Every structure is written in structure tokens, then in C-alpha cells.
Records
---
Amino acid sequence: MTSAPLPAQEYARLLALARYEILDTPPEAVFDRVTRLAAHLLGTPAAFLNFVDQHRQWGKAAVGIRGTNADREHSFCAWTILQDTPMVVENAHLDPRFHDNPMVRGEPHIHMYAGAPLTTPSGHRIGTLCVMDTQDHPLKPTDLQALQDLADTVVSELELRLNNHQLQREAGAQAQYVQELRRTLEHARVLEGVNSLMTLEQELGPEHMTLLAAGLLRDALSSDYTGLLVLEGNDVRVVAGESQPALSPALTGLQPQLSGGITRTLRTSRKPLYLEEYALHPHALPAVIAAGVGQIAWVPLGTRGQVTSLLMAVRVQGNPVTQWRGSDRSLLEAAGRSIATALDRQLVTNAAVQQARQDPLTSLHNRRAFEEDLPRWTEGGQAWTLAMLDLDGFKAVNDHEGHAQGDRVLRVFASALSAALDESARLYRLGGDEFVILLPSTQEADVLEGVDVAFLAARQVAGLTGVSVGMAHSHEGPEPALLELADARMYASKQRKHRLRLTAQPASSR
């Protein structure tokens, strides 16, 4: 038995397979129907749909056979994905690649095998649709064409699923938002005022919303200070805080210190901490004790990314309430859940917006982001520049070296240009090999220098011939006119370089 060699672009093929998120998923009727139809059309007792992973053959659907999971070294399908057309093994017992294969010598006793590759739009063969028989079973060219047609149908279904998944990301984020909102409303019986504010984070913004909630909590708890703290790296800062109007100047100036000491030890804590006598805690700060702080409560609100949030309430010595009562704790923790839910919703919404504005191939901003951002540059009142870019020779790269190589060129060019541009610049991929830069008004030479750097990096990947650039400045007209002007100048630059290349060619080569 001989194991199949790896395809030339195995790493890219595995990435293409992972992109569909199909491995280890449960059976699905649509794929079961395809295998039944394959067995019926080709008159075989068994048909199966397999995907070839890094070290295994994994079966998504099968008819007439129990299961088709196997090590890749034993996989017939690992040989099938090495070619563009269906592979037929008329008698596996006589084929040196398979005569001692466990699936030939034992169950399912493969004698005849035919498999059609599942080829993605980018040209990667990620699996196979196969039929088998335990005896001689001649196949006609029309049978193999039907098998390939069904395999292409599987790929179309995978592409449809992928596109639907991408389209549903933003809708999914909105559904999660609604779910979290319901949870917030469940807390309304405990803290109606705070929950009402939590539903307004889109209008108020998280800081303003939390500031208003802190004011409500301060009054309800008879606390002297209530605030939202965040810990990020080594920094601890007050995001929103409300103090009693009569709070002494000494205590007012202690807000930064209140975010230190014990607070820093709560970075990984999930449980609230209530201190009746702050001064007795081993991490109590002398300045805070001297200022008269008596009681402090901290309610962790969770960690999002690298940022940990805490809700904190403080009472000073002499406060008529001398301990954190059960009702105080219930109120703080209910409020903490409400604020944490709002912060989660804000995070989900921001992530959904970011995904909707991001080009998945290059991670740059996409056309939607450009169309949203352009009016803001116009409304800003400052001078700015719009540059349109098009990669010369990119179509030839796709035609001669494949779309996977073309994608790599785009990623390298985008990454290099992002690094070369000033932080104030915004880079967008409109589609294909078209890019746009928005940046504060600057010398054209600065833009061209960054483009040259990116071109040199991309040329190391494939044979681009240049980058055509057209620029327009904000004083030259309104948005539509600027776009047309930059596009016209870019096209003129491309035509000019094309004529120069033709002129430079020897007459015999034209």
C-alpha cells in the first residue's frame, strides 16, 4: 500500500477546507440526498461524501456503508484530490496503491472505486464524492460526468452556507443584543431606574449611561461615592463616578487613590468584595484611611479583551449606614449584572459593526466603511486628499498563477501599505485590486512613497508591473466629483504607463 503524496499547496488547501467549518458537524439532509442520488444514478451499492483533513479522511454523509472515517494514509480520496477529474479504480485488488489497503482486504471490501474531487472556486480540492462496489462495475463517461456534477453541487451548497453565515453575522449580533436586552429587563423589578438607563446605551454612550446609573445607586445605597473603574494593563482609571455634593475636598481628591490598593488585587476576581472596616484590610492605603473612608464594596463586571471592569461604592466614617446590608448587596449585584450586560451588548455591537466594515481578505476597511466614512471627512472642514489605487498586472497574476496567489499579493500589498502610511491615513479595499486612501492634505510625494514601498513588497510575491494612482484634493469639488476626478487621474496614469511600455518594446515583439 502506498500513501498518497501531499498536494502542491497543501497548507492553502487545508485553510480552504477550514473556511467552510464543515468538519465534525452532524449529518445533514442535503448531503445525505446527494449520496443517495449518486448511488442511484451510478447503480452502486454505496456512495459517500468525504473531506480530506490534515491527517484523516472524514465522512460527512454515506449510503450503503456504515462510516468512512479513516487515517489519511489509507484514504482513496487522498489520491482523488491530486487530480482535477474523477479517479476510477476498476479493481483495487490489482492496483499497487490499494491491493493491501485495510478497506480492500476488510470492510467495506472495496473492489471498484470512483471519486470526483470537490473543487472550491479558488481551485483547492478539499474532498470527494465517491461511489464503490464490491465487484466489477464498469462506468461510462456519462456516469463520471454525473458524479462530477453532483460533486460540484456539494461545493455550491458549501459556498451558499458560507455566504449565508457571513451575511448572518451582523444579524446574529443583533439577535444576541436582543437576548441580552431581555435579560436586562428581567432585572427591572430589582432596579428599574438603572435598567431603564441600560436600555439607552446606544443613545447615551456607555460612560454617560454608567454615570447616571452611579448617581441612582449612590442615592439608593446612601453611599458617598459610586463609580465604574476599569483595569487595563498596569493602569486603573475611573470611567464614571458620582459623589455626594457635600463630600469633603479631601475625599473628592482621593478618587484616583480609590482605584489603587485593594482594587488592583481584584483583577481576576469574580466575587463581590464588601469591607465593613476598610482600615483593617492588609492592602488598605494610608491616604484613603486618613481621608475617612469606612466601607467599600467592589462588584466585578467581567473582563472584555484586556479590560476588567468593577463597580465600586464607598461610605465614609460617620455615614448613618454602618454596614453593607443584604438589600445593599442585592441592589449592587443586580446593578452590576445590568451594567455588565450593557457593556457586553456594546462590545457585541461594536464587533458586529467592525466585521461589517472589514474586508475579510486583507483586514482593511471595505467599501461599506469607505462610503460611511467619506461624508465625515467632508463635514470635518479640514483639507484632505483622496487617492485611488489600482494594481497593474494583477489580472495576469490571477490568470497565470491562480487566485490563491492573487489573494496573497493583495494581502502583502495591503499590509505593507498600511505600515508605510501615517497613522492619520485610512486605507480601504473597494474590491478586486482597487484601493482608496483618505488622509489629511499632504504632499503627493508622501503617498507615492508609501505606494512604492507596498509595490516592492508585493512584487516579491508575484510579477506586478506597477501601481496606478490618481489623487484628488478636497478643495477640488464635492464628494462625487472628487471620486470621479481621482478615478480619471488613476485611469490616465494607467494608460500613460501602458503606452510607455508599448513604446519601450522592440517592434518585433509587438
---
Amino acid sequence: MELEQEFYRAMAYRVRELAGGADPFIRRRLLGLAERYEAKGGKPSPVSRSAEHPLPPLRIVSPATAIPGPGEA
């Protein structure tokens, strides 16, 4: 169990490092992800703005619809 907690703590650290160089929208999402990793790692995290105003879920577009075919624009 300790190995799993250490994994989540390390992931939280890595995600926070990535957030440092990201644009504001991505930064908020990455910091929210880091908080979830910290919670799984057993380290309590304070309530943040992301908990008060949850971010919308990611919109996933299938590859077939993401790239227009010939003659489509």
C-alpha cells in the first residue's frame, strides 16, 4: 500500500510541474488532477477553487470526426 501512495504522490508532483508551464485553462485542470492524486496518496489537500467550481468534463472527439474528409471544410 505504501508503494501505491508513493506513486500517487510522485504523480501529483509531476503534474504540478507540468502545470507550471501550461496556459491558464490547462493549469487549472492539471492542478485539479494533482489534488486528486494527492488525495489517493493519503496526503490531505485543502479545499480549493476547483472543488467550489468544478471544471466541465473533457469533450472527447472520435478521430473519424476530428479530421474532415476530402471536400469537407
